[in-house]
């Protein structure tokens, strides 16, 4: 990926930096730093208002083609946008699943009618989305999906259970992987359906996390209905489309994630200085290594952007998830005894939230085991694991 930033890119950097400085003021000023992993409950409605403010100014879906409502930015300019957004400490956006996952999937695999129906509402942040992949018996292994969808006239009837569904409690729609071919197994017979959440056949149950928040949910479908033409990529092609979505998930927006990681690392360093842990040579060495490893993660992301998704994305997931989990552990060590204390009503500080939420990093979004299998089979050419 050629991310060389020329004069036009620097003018673009000045444009977005200036816009953020002018607009993260007034009622939006208090939203700086709000939201994000483990903290999606923070000021959700206010952040939704901020997202719609971004949309009105043309700052959503910036990498999408112009004909689909985006700005058509180059990879280098998308990198700049996400970097400046993170550096401004702007609030975590509430439309990530629609903007970064479903939208690009529809652009690549959707019908013109599907694109016309859903893309403008994603750009305007008028409809929010969640992802119906994982199930109690099918976590990172999507080929084991058991949720079923049956065609009845001009509708699909969906029955089954999904779990770890981020922000389902706020979503208007869910993109669901379901088995549409009776008797099929593994990758065969799956379809990628778009299902409305506001209907009697859908129940959302929050999952209480270690952080005392509930951004993940169980979702139960009991004869939930959706239109027959809301199958993306054609009936039976759900696994291929789902893999494309996962590729988009690990795209350019992950660079903003790394800047957020740098802020967390800086907070850990500041804590080490305050508690005196920085005087320990071993702790200092681990902090230096954490900074070096974060730069390695960034350079890997830049090198693989715009290339084939899958293999490089699996490496990236292994790198950042293990790094972030280790940072949470280091945060507790430098905090010392105060790491064990919580405020009234289980009020966690930022480093405690970092530690507790990062325990899940190596599981969600594709577990380490799955990523290593992808690398072993697709990159190293090792024999495939025996499967039933």
UniProtKB/TrEMBL annotation:
Residues 130-223 form the Acyl-CoA oxidase/dehydrogenase middle domain. Keywords: FAD, Flavoprotein, Oxidoreductase. It holds the Pfam family Acyl-CoA_dh_1. Its cofactor is FAD. Residues 8-125 form the Acyl-CoA dehydrogenase/oxidase N-terminal domain. The keyword Flavoprotein applies. Transmembrane segments: none annotated. Residues 236-380 form the Acyl-CoA dehydrogenase/oxidase C-terminal domain. InterPro entries: Acyl-CoA_Oxase/DH_mid-dom, Acyl-CoA_Oxase/DH_mid-dom_sf, AcylCo_DH-like_C, AcylCo_DH/oxidase_C, AcylCoA_DH/ox_N, AcylCoA_DH/ox_N_sf, AcylCoA_DH/oxidase_NM_dom_sf, Mycobact_Acyl-CoA_DH. Belongs to the acyl-CoA dehydrogenase family. This is Acyl-CoA dehydrogenase family protein. It comes from Microbacterium sufflavum. The lineage of its organism: Bacteria, Bacillati, Actinomycetota, Actinomycetes, Micrococcales.
